[in-house]
Amino acid sequence: MKNKEEIKELLLALSDKMNKFEKGDLFSLSEIKDGFDLLMGGIGKFMPKGYEEQMGLVSDFFSVEINVNKTDEYFAIATICLKCFSEIIENGKKSDDEFVKSCFDDFKEKITGYINKNILDVKKDFYPADYFANLVDDKEMLSKFCDEIKEHLDESQITLVDLEYDSTNQENINKVFRAFHTAKSSSAFLGVKNIEEIAHKMEDLLMLVRDGKLQITKDLIDVVFYGINFIRQLSSIIESENYEPKRIIECFNQIDIYKYIAVISEILAKYATKKIGEILLDEGKLDKQLVDEILVKQKDTDKKFGEIAIEEKYISEDDLLSAVKKQTQKAKSSVFVKVSNSKLNELVDLVGELVITQSMVKQSSGGQRVSGENGAAVDCTFNDSAYVQLEKITTSIKNIVLSMGMVPVSEIFNKLRVVVRNAANDLGKMINLEIDGENAELDRNVIENIYDPLVHIVRNSVDHGIEDGDERQSAGKNKIGKIKIEALHKGNNIEIQITDDGRGIDKEAVIRKAIERGLIDRDKSSDLDDKDIYSFIFLPGFSTAKKVTELSGRGVGLDVVKKNIEQIHGKVEIKSVKGQYSQFIIKLPLTLAIIDGFVTVVSGVKYIFPFNLIEEIIIPDDKKISRLDNGQLMLYLRNNYIPVIFAGEILKEENFNRDLDKILIIIINYQNRLYGIAVDSIAGKQEIVIKNLNQALNELKVFSGGTIFGDGTIGFVVDIEEFMDNARRTLK
Asked: Which pTM does this prediction carry?
């Protein structure tokens, strides 16, 4: 932070965030913590002399990790600090020295007490005094141990990704189990007690999976992935401290493994095998008094609980057999059948043809269509029951087939964990990866085509986005970089966002490169908006990287990213602030097969808009439409003025209706704003089977595909993003 204005803004932002903070909000707390780190990196040069010791204490205070549910005391002290800094930044050398002195005196004791309570005592209590007493003093053995651990962890990561797709693969389950069993044994032999404990708990967890008592889920795999990262970090400490036991132990003593172990213990406790007595008690076959009585008798004999219960005639043999079956019952698991992707695609195409045929039957029946039970359409002709049955079967088949082709994005997100980790290790960077929304599902064909673009973007974030640790620290950032990958549902689409808190994109550098390559005149560069500037980055061979690395910077990649995404009717956008963050937003259709569309007619051509965006249909009234000085029409609707866009203009039609008496206006809700789209007429809602356009029409980006209607005519599916982008240019 270079100037006082920036620090003033940061002080106000921090104060506002603390006032709005709700307990348990980990994301907001992380933002506040990052803000304090940034503040301490820039405030020092503006402080008056004589407060060096106090500033050191304040710096120690802000470096303490905040408990997400216990922030009151921390924020109370932080508020006093912020008031003091505000006084100094506002008034400089003229600041009230008495006020500053009283501030520091007021919180000096509070800060010292807080630090002692939240750091010193906690560090002492993690482990017993002799916990690491058996750590070997042999550098070669520790070095081999670290290499072995890495090998097992790398193999486990890849296997876990496969397990998430096929959770019934027993060989893969055994492979991961063996990896942690070996890690436990090796660490126990060398006295690396903390890794031994973590590996032992993970082994216990995987034993439940191996024995069929616990089903593999995404959440469970996340727990194991976290453990892998934990062990990897602990082994990295051994390497970074040059295998010196004393220094290794000093570092280990500051790391609490028991929060993670507690998570596994909770899972183990939940899925631990119940004893026969507990099962019979739960079933009401025995009461508490009888259970206690049998347990007392069991102490004086080698007989099992069930044997005594039968001998005493408390239960029957059938009761015991039923309890034993429940005790040994394996967890139910989902059964997956692998299907050839080509066959699945062929089936989807056939269903598409079936939907088209249904549409033909509907149009050729020649009957009146009315609304029947539950809103279902009924054809009031001789073949009404046959048609209703066909419609019902077609819809059911369509839904099942489409769901068969849907795959959770976690399938590729989990692979990206490995990509980020390996790339960060290659570049010597520390990066924390956050993933959210991985349960969202996409068409299998979309998933297959999106993986490579995501790898390019993620590697770009690691290589060019996230700075080196020293550079981040000098910029007032946390030494550990952050990348967040999340999937968000947006109507019939999904957005995948990849955000890093790195150096951002230097727009001036992009413009200079574009001018240098003759892509734009220097005189016109000031007219470019952010979208225009970032579009240069996707051109083949365009790169502003100062250094070529093995990962990226060769000017190859982002042009391929854009091409691959557009092939599956997707869009990619960039948002960035220099020195703060970069964000790649990929907008994708949920499926490439069938959508709910709203069919309109412009100049005799059918155009399909996404049905989920349609709010209502308006028959225009001259009294409610006004014209601005620039010619733009505005529709007055329920106390709001809505811009009207003639679809014919955007779609480059010539003979569309401009007469307000002959048009209809469909109101769409796009990005939380209402727009009116004027069309000649409306055919209504219909299920649309999307077909790829031929090569000649593929260049028309305003269309995401085409379709064939029941009467044999063709229609074009409008890409609403491109349509609205073109429309906004006309609205300026």
From this structure: 0.46
